[in-house]
Amino acid sequence: MKKLLLALALVLPVFSAEVSIPSFSILNKPLKIKGLKPGDQVKIDGRESPVPSSWGFHRVEVLRQGKRIKEGKFLALPGLFTLLPPAIAILLALLTRDVFLSLFLGIFTSSLLLNFLNPVKAFLRSLDRYVIKALLSPEKLSIVLFTLLLGAMVGVMSKSGGIEGIVQALARRVRSPKTTQLYTWLLGIFIFFDDYTNTLIVGNTMRPLADRWKVSREKLAYIVDSTAAPVASVALISTWIGFEVSLIGEGFRHVGLSMDPYMVFLRTLPIRFYVIFALFFGFLIIITGREFGPMLRAERRARQGKLLRDGAIPLAEFEIGPLLPPPHIPKRWINGLIPILAVIAVTFSGIYITGMNSAGQIPPGPLLKKIGLIFSSGDSFRSLLWGSLSGFAVALAMAVGQKLLRIREAMKAGVDGMKAMLTAVIILSLAWALSETLMELRTGDYLASSLSGRLDPRLLPAAVFLISALISFSTGTSWGTMSIVYPLVIPLAYSLARGTPHFEKVLVAVVASVLSGAVFGDHCSPISDTTIMSSMASSCDHVDHVKTQIPYAITVAVFSLLFGVIPYSFSLPYFLTISLEALALTVFLMAVGKKV
User: Fold this and answer.
1) Can you spell out the DSSP letters for 559-586?
2) Closest by alpha carbon to 358, among 238, 242, 480, 244?
3) Burial class (CB in 10 A: 0-12, 13-18, 19+), 311
4) Parallel, antiparallel or unpaired: strands 24-26 and 67-77
5) Which one is predicted more confidently, 465 or 363?
6) CB atoms within 10 A of CB 166
């Protein structure tokens, strides 16, 4: 038997489980084969070249020490084809308002390219591979459970009168649609440590009050969305820090820079022009009471009592019979506030504790850097789960402990709250699956390599902002965009600006522009997770939220480029760029915006 096995091993090719051949490649780009070792040879159609040079199907062989260890086939097409799936999903979502079908067709198109243009296989793989693969990620599952548990908490709070109690308590201070929006904006700034927590808590808490004062669901979703990621991305203590610092540090190591990535991160904070002015513009619109574009029409409609347009389909609906409190239940604000504070406190503490455990021995240095290191090492996804579970448990205990609801009624309210989140969870899962397929197609790599080229180093930050925005808009993820762009643009900035007197300034501005562009593209994208969650938390039609938010996001982006990024890169003093942009946005709004 042993001799037979030995003979087979000598005669048959040895196929290595470590080597993985992709089913799709971009034309004239090296085929990305995982598991290759130094000295391995790649042959395409018998040629000793890892680069496909013609359209269509190709046969590939991997040889190690002259022996074939892996073979397969792949489809090679021009990189432009990788833009088809996100283009189909985004355009159909905007045209048909059917987000489910649009996202699925985007996934199917990707699957078609990744499965040798076989429509039957592509249809089946859309679900059993790509959707399942997206949900198998522990981070994604954590977000799903966090969303469902937060929905359960809101369901119990609503049924026990806690939500209505908060509305009644705030109503004593809120006297108009303007103050309602201002309190929503302030609450969005206050919950600064995580954008998912921010989105779901602010939207769910302020929605009943916004309804009372006839603020449109679109406007509420805009305020929620325009504070969540921007404030979390610039906060000195947040779940974003570790991810950003690690990517910056990896880019520096790649080019041999000895600069401290955390200190560079701190230097980027004041020059993240889009992020800063997204917050400023939201505040400016609220204070002036002026709107323009689709948002103006939505707000005027809402003041007449129609919070949603005719035919709108909100992503979550908490104003349904099963979640409305019975008339005899006292409406106590404390039953709404305490569970929310429990979520915030437990999540915040969880990030700190897991960060302390992961960081190990903290080196001496400034206190701010130590705290940043702790939070950058924290497990935000696990902490979010702890926080939402604690909030649900506290809401349950308060409702049952005060005999407002029986345990069975409270649990049913929790399940009904989860049901209200189900539509959004499905859309979120489809958006993640589309993002997974775009990673396999290397859409982001194609965009980044196509749009980058030689230019004046001082124009590089503006170019990087636009590249990041386009990738983020196409893929629906700001974190994924940073993962793609940072390793590409840091070496590019190093090679273009090295040796020039403005090297450090350009490098820091480029690092800042990656995140600013990623947040801008994320704000505009219908397939972005935070955009979807903002629609869900505000109980808004998702496409309506996107259509009303895009004009505001584009306005801030254009002014940030013209009065912020470009002048700063050409050495205009910082205080002057900030002042110019603030003034320009104010003048624009006063000229174009109209009173509701």
Assistant:
1) HHIIIIIHHHHTT--HHHHHHHHHHHHH
2) 242
3) exposed
4) parallel
5) 465
6) 23
Say which amino acid occupies 252: F
**Under a CB-based contact definition with an 8 Å cutoff, are residues 153 and 339 in contact?**
yes
Q: Pick from 346, 367, 371: which is nearest to 359 by CA?
A: 371
User: Phi/psi at 456 (nearest 5 deg)?
Assistant: -55, 125
Say what angle helices 529-537 and 503-524 make with each other, to 10 degrees: 50
Give the start-to-end residue ranges of the domains of the chain: 14-77, 81-138
Q: Using CA atoms, how far apart are residues 184 and 198, in angstroms rounded to an integer?
A: 11
Judge contact between 476 and 522, C-beta under 8 A.
Answer: yes
Distance (Å, whole) CA 131 – CA 428: 10
CATH 2.60.40 fits 14-77, yes or no: yes
* 41-44 β-sheet, strand order: 24-26, 67-77, 56-64, 41-44
Under 8 Å between Cβ of 410 and 396: yes
Q: In sequence order, what DSSP letters do the residues of 19-55 get, joined into one string?
A: -B--SEEETTS----BT--TT-EEEETTBS-SS--SS
Q: Where are the alpha helices (DSSP H) in 235-379?
A: 241-255, 261-268, 273-288, 294-303, 334-359, 367-376
Pair 36, 42: CB distance under 8 Å: yes
Average pLDDT over every residue of 369-374: 70
Residue 1 pLDDT: 42
pLDDT of amino acid 364: 65
Can you spell out the DSSP letters for 135-197? HHSHHHHHHHHHHHHHHHHHHHHHHTTHHHHHHHHHHTT--SHHHHHHHHHHHHHH--S-HHH
Question: Does the pLDDT at position 453 exceed 70?
Answer: no
492 confidence band (pLDDT: 50, 70, 90): confident
> Residue 493 in contact with residue 473, Cβ under 8 Å?
no
Which of 209-213, 261-265, 534-538 bottoms out in mean pLDDT, i.e. has the lowest? Answer: 261-265
Residue 12 has pLDDT above 50, yes or no: no
Q: Please answer whether residues 431 and 144 qualify as being in contact, where contact means their C-beta atoms are separated by less than 8 angstroms.
A: no
Dihedral Cα 403, 407, 413, 415, nearest 10 deg: 160
> Is the per-residue pLDDT at 316 higher than 80?
no
CA distance 255 to 508: 15
Owner of token pair 């409702």: 399
Beta partners for 290? 595
Q: Which tens digits make up the pLDDT trace of 108-152?
A: 999 999 999 999 999 999 988 988 888 887 877 887 888 788 888
State how far the Cα of 176 lies from the Cα of 161, in Å rounded to an integer.
23
Kindly state the average pLDDT of the residues 497-502: 74
Best CA proximity match to 557, nearest among 531, 529, 588: 588
Do the Cβ atoms of 237 and 249 come closer than 8 Å?
no
φ/ψ of 142, rounded to 5, equals -60, -40
Q: Give 416's Cβ-side CA count (13 Å radius).
A: 21
- pLDDT (tens digit per residue) in 510-556: 999 999 999 999 999 988 888 988 998 899 999 999 999 999 999 99
Structure tokens at 311: 């035919």
